[in-house]
Amino acid sequence: MLKVERLHHSYGKAEILKNIDLGVERGEVFVTIGPTGSGKTTLLRLLGLLERPTSGHIYFDGHLVNNSERQRLEIRRRLAMVSQKPAVFNASVFDNVAYGLKIRKENGASLRHKVMNALETVGLSGYEGRDARTLSGGETQRVALARAMVIEPELLLLDEPTANLDPVSTSHIEKLVTEIIKKSDMTVLMSTHDMFQGQRLAHRMGVLIGGEILQTGDPREIFSLPQSRKIAEFVGVENMLGGVIASNTEGIVDIKLDGAVVEAISNLRVGEQVYACVRPEEITLARTKESTSARNTFNGEITRIVLFGPLARVELDCGFLLVALITKRSAEEMNLQIGNRIYASFKATGVHVIKG
Amino acid sequence: MHAIADAFVLAVKMIFTGNPEVYSITARTLEISISSTVIGALLFVPLGCLIYFNNFRGKRLLICIIQTCYSLPTVFVGLLVFLVFSRAGPLGIFGIMFTPQVMVIGQVVLIGPIVTGLTISALSGVSPAIRETAISLGASRLQSVWAVLKEARFAVLTAIMVGFGRAISEVGLALMVGGNIRGYTRVLTTAISLETGKGEVALSLALGFILVALALIVTVLANRFLKVKEADVAQSRAPTS
Amino acid sequence: MKKILMLLLTLAMLLSLVSVLPACNEETITPSPTLSPTTTDVPPLKPVGRLTVATTTSLYDTGLWGYLEPMFEQKYGVNLNIISVGSGKAFQYGKTGDVDVLTVHEPKAEQDFLAGNYSSARVPFAYNYFVIVGPPSDPAGIKDMAPVDAFKKLITMGNVTGSQVKFVSRGDGSGTHAAEQRLWAAAGYQYADVEKSGSWYIEAGAGMGPTLVMANEKQAYTLSDMGTFISYKTKLNLTALVNQQNETLRNVYCVMVVNSTKNKTMANNLVTFLTSPEIQDLMGKYGVAEYGTQLFTPCAGQNL
Questions:
Q1: Predicted complex: ipTM over 0.85
Q2: Does residue A294 sit in the same domain as residue A229?
Q3: pLDDT tens digits for A149-187?
């Protein structure tokens, strides 16, 4: 329902968005992920028709959005946007949520009904009389969400909806969004810098780095099969081992690194410079060599252990740096200490090869 | 100090014994000042919005001029209005010199810059995110302006109250275009001026107290009106089911 | 609660807007209870338009106009709007046509007004005398001198430091001010020089009442008309020092109908009224009971 062609946007001399091409299907959840400052907010603002792009075309339902203010207003009435730090009006929660309906000339009992429903959906029943300015961050976000939903938009734009929230509120909001999506056939376009969130919520994702869309695809593709180094770094592939393809036998390649060989699956050719990307969670650690069936096994010294939540991030020096992510429990059972020499291994299938 | 105490007593006496002339002057003062404030608000709050929300060449200069006019001497404005509405002037055919009508017109002109300028101030105190939020929820241009205005309502009300204050307390214009005619265009301020000139100190002070009391009543009413709107919103939105 | 307040506010707004419409704002003729003592009981009449009069302040500050106004309004069924300004301003309003009738007391300006065809006749109706008043201690020692000599003495002594001699002038282009200037001229001084001659000469720029109040504050000398002086006497600590009732100091009030008035009939009614025997009689008696002496001498028909 939404198509973007060759979108460029600059603020003065600064080019924020370069050559964006994008398509979003009706009913799907599309998440743009990227680091802060990559242009996600700008993109959403342009798609929300809050600003006009420096150049490029936007299509809604196949119709080109032109400069006519009337047409833009009409389209804007069919979508709703929630910003990163939503502004609430200096009024009650009820009045805030009801705003979109009021300007569409709705009133009376049906308006009340819709507003109360929306408040219930976001878990704010009983809040309607409160001064909207006295709400906490999480509550404000929920009001903004209710405010957007209550007008039943065809397209919902969410700009980093949980960026300023604590983990509990974040999970609430995520649950909400998922429910909303399930209940209606709303199309959702969301941006976030939290790739895991993107993974959780998206049907499809687009990686926006430096103002360019570097890759689109479903979350699994992006996550496990990043197409470039920049993407890989962003999506959290911490182990990117640079080397050369030494041999390729029916898709099984040997990648020669400095002093080690990694086996992987790829159809790139011999002699190509590549990166062998391994996600930290694909690496298993063991005290002894034979307890693993993986082809890629390396011996290294533990240089760093960081515990967070139920996980442990272990850095190994195997001649090259390897970062592994295991459960805290496992780390305790193995009694890992800094300085220990242990074995790290991962399957060939766990290696994603990208061109270097 | 005696004079002030005497004057206070005199003021109370005049109000409660229903001195008809005091009543008539007070009523006239209210009529004229409230009329000019209402008309001024209806004209100049929208003008303030117009200026604030549009960008045009000379906008800063215009705002500067408006702010300069905060300090326009009332006699000066009175003189200008006189020159325009005198029978010898361009709008003389209406023949409204020395009437309450021309006093209202003059006061509207006087408070125009204040109401316009302070409305602009009020609007600029509202975060731009408010207007954007309104627009992102589908508000038309007009609706988004109204949303910002509502957000700034306290400051806008202040602008109107300040305008009222200037209108009710000015002398120069009222004297010049009204003529201080007893029973017709005499208001509290011009009466004070007259009685002071006659050396009637207690009377002048008493009239002054009445004027302040009036201003107080109007201010309190205006503030209560706003507060009521707020409380009412919270009350009536309680869940019914 | 909100609805009631909204209703009240709307009502207030409507009321104020309605009051602004000219048709709805013809004031009823009310009885003349003033803020100061004099009251006459006159029942209100149905309003029939208005007549605007610009008067010199001395006729107003004495309360004469306040006294005559309701009588005229009742007799002729019209609203009388009296604007109290200096004669200078009165003539100006007459020229621009913003008032219908003038009551003034400045012979030269009156002649110019006639010559300029702004009016067709000046009709004298009363007179009194100017009087030089000052502090009871009379530091300049002008008591009972001839007016011109008194002025000579005043300016001489005024320039002597430490003499306590001060003079407050109307300084407002009024009839009284013009009379004062005539006296300076007769004393042999250019008025411009008098103004510049020192801080002893104070220009009030105000009406007769306020000027007397200022002279009282400063314990200075001033030229006043007898009527205003007498009506203010109880509030002042000033004495009439040069009180010669002769031609030099005679102060004649006359009424002039402005030619451009839209209300000629009613304006002429006012002239008739002021020169009518009953009113002339009342004018002569005005203030006698209260102050013990006449404030105005009626003179309708006399060639003054």
A1: no
A2: no
A3: 899 899 999 999 888 788 888 888 888 888 887 777 789
Cα separation, A64 vs A71, in Å, equals 10
* 8 Å CB contact of A81 and B233: no
Query: Cβ–Cβ of A100/B143 closer than 8 Å?
Result: no
Both A53 and A118 in one domain: the answer is yes
- pLDDT band for position C91 (cuts 50, 70, 90): very high
Q: Per-residue pLDDT tens for A112-126?
A: 999 998 898 888 888
* Gap between the Cα atoms of A9 and A54, Å rounded: 5
Burial bucket for residue C243 (CB in 10 Å: 0-12, 13-18, 19+): middle
Superfamily holding C129-249: Periplasmic binding protein-like II (3.40.190.10)
Residues of B near A (CB-CB distance < 8 A)?
127, 129-130, 132-141, 143, 147, 150-151, 233-235, 237-239, 241
Does residue B78 fall inside a structural domain?
yes
Query: Do A60 and A173 fall into the same domain?
Result: yes
C48-127+251-298 and C129-249: identical CATH topology: yes
pLDDT (mean) for A101-122? 89
Q: Which of A89, A120, A131 would you mutate first to test chain B, the one with the most B CBs within 10 A?
A: A89
Neighboring chain B residues of A69 at a CB cutoff of 8 Å = 141
Question: For residue C199, what is the enclosing H or E element?
Answer: none
Looking at residue B75, which CATH number applies to its domain? 1.10.3720.10
**Domains identified in chain B, total number:** 1
To the question of pTM greater than 0.80 for the whole model, the response is no
84-113 of B, contacting C, C-beta below 8 A: 86-89, 92, 95-101, 104
Q: Contact B78/B175 with Cβ under 8 angstroms?
A: yes
Measured between CA atoms, the residue of chain B closest to residue C228 is: B198
Residue B234 in domain: no
CB–CB contacts below 8 A, B to C: 111
Q: Is B30 strand, coil or helix? A: helix
A295-352 pLDDT, tens digit per residue, is 788 888 999 999 888 999 999 988 888 899 999 998 889 888 899 899 888 888 888 8
Chain B closest CA to A128's CA: distance in Å? Answer: 6
Question: Does C260 contact chain B (CB < 8 Å)?
Answer: yes
B51 in a structural domain = yes
How many CB atoms are located within 10 Å of the residue C129 CB?
A: 18
Domains of chain C: which residue ranges? Answer: 48-127+251-298, 129-249
Q: How far is B237 from chain C (nearest CA, A)?
A: 14
Taking CB atoms and an 8 Å limit, are C99 and B228 in contact across chains?
Answer: no
CATH of residue A261: 2.40.50.100
Sheet of A155-159: strand order equals A79-82, A155-159, A187-192, A29-33, A204-209, A212-217
Query: Residues A176, A301: one domain?
Result: no
Q: Which residues contact A227 (CB under 8 A, 6 or more apart)?
A: A214, A215, A354
Q: Are A179 and A256 members of one domain?
A: no
| Sign of the dihedral through C-alpha C25, C31, C33, C37 | positive
Residues 6+ apart with CB under 8 A from A289: A297, A299, A343
Do residues A185 and A247 share a domain?
A: no
Question: Which member of B132, B147, B238 has the closest CB to residue A89?
Answer: B147
The yes-or-no reply on B/C contact (3 CB pairs or more, < 8 Å) is yes
Domain end (from A217, A233, A249) = A233
Q: Does residue B117 contact residue B70 with C-beta atoms inside 8 Å? A: yes
Instruction: Report chain B residues whose CB lies below 8 A from the CB of C84.
Output: 180
Task: Give the separation between CA A274 and CA A243, rounded to whole angstroms.
Answer: 6
**Top CATH class, C48-127+251-298:** alpha beta
The domain in which residue B215 lies consists of: 6-227
Q: Which residues of A touch B239 (CB under 8 A)?
A: 116, 125-126, 128
Residue B106 in any domain: the answer is yes
Are residues A181 and A268 located together in one domain of the fold? Answer: no
State the chains in contact with A (3 or more Cβ–Cβ pairs under 8 Å): B
| Residue among A81, A126, A129 whose CB faces B136 most closely | A81
Q: Shortest Cα distance from B72 to chain C (angstroms)?
A: 22
pLDDT of chain B, 241 residues: tens digit per residue: 677 787 778 878 877 787 788 888 999 999 999 999 999 999 999 999 999 999 999 999 999 999 999 989 999 999 999 999 988 889 988 888 899 999 999 999 999 999 999 999 999 999 999 999 999 998 999 999 999 999 999 899 999 999 999 999 999 999 999 989 888 899 999 999 988 888 787 888 888 989 999 889 888 888 887 776 655 555 544 444 4
Show the domain range for A137: 2-233
